[in-house]
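Exam prep: given the inputs below (a chain plus uridine-5'-diphosphate), describe the expected output before reading on.
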Amino acid sequence: MRLAGEGTVNILGVVFDDVTKASARDAIIAHAKDGGTLAAVFTPNSELVERCAEGDGMLTGIINSAELTLPDSVGIVKAARIFGTPLKERVPGVEVGEAVLERAAAFALPVYFLGGRPGVAEAAKRNMESKYPGLSVVGTKDGYFERTPPAVSDVIENIAESGARILFVCLGAPAQEKFIYENRRALEDAGVRVALGLGGSLDIYAGVSRRAPKLFVSLGLEWLWRLLREPSRIGRMTALPKFYLRCRREAKKQKKRRRA
Ligand code: UDP
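Solution:
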């Protein structure tokens, strides 16, 4: 069941919710307060969708298991337009995450930060708790633990003991989506009601990395900003033109099929 009843858009087999930042935040908070089961919130970008479309059916299944999938990147919003099914707006996970923290403070919903290099989650906790009085980040853990059953169980036990209802998982993609997918039952039993895969958001909240300046964002060039700061991403970024061309090809095919 989708968390937000606002319709979906399919991009190369990956389902996105046609939400706004505000409606996504409200759906997450409502579920964190009253939900009886765990809801997963994912934020796949064009690079990840391209990986799915190249034939990684398992990854597609994992991403489509989410209850809410946010169109985090400008590439996804453009793709939706190419397919003739425009989305309401771009919904960056980092912004929804912060909006959720603001509301979590107001409703006394405990939060856990998982991910980032050692020290990052603690710094994010300090910054966010001082920005949003009343916010309770009840636990933190860096994202460099072994992905073996005993190490993962320790992490989940720690989350359970914290009493968190909302879990931010910032391990990078697709590690964070896999972590939530593979541990869904255990996290639910631990009391987590919403688990969000939020990439580098803790780095931003901690102040160890910066979001692109508004000019880059408004020109749709956030990827260029990222590339300038992390040139090692160049290999990964070849996925972006491939994704764009694949969407154009697929949209043309769909148009032809509709005419026939
Ligand atoms: N990270 C982590 N554990 C790992 C690898 C990465 O916690 O084993 C963190 C890393 O410190 C960073 C985030 O995951 O904070 C990756 O963010 P990014 O936005 O680069 O994610 P991606 O674009 O790879 O999804």
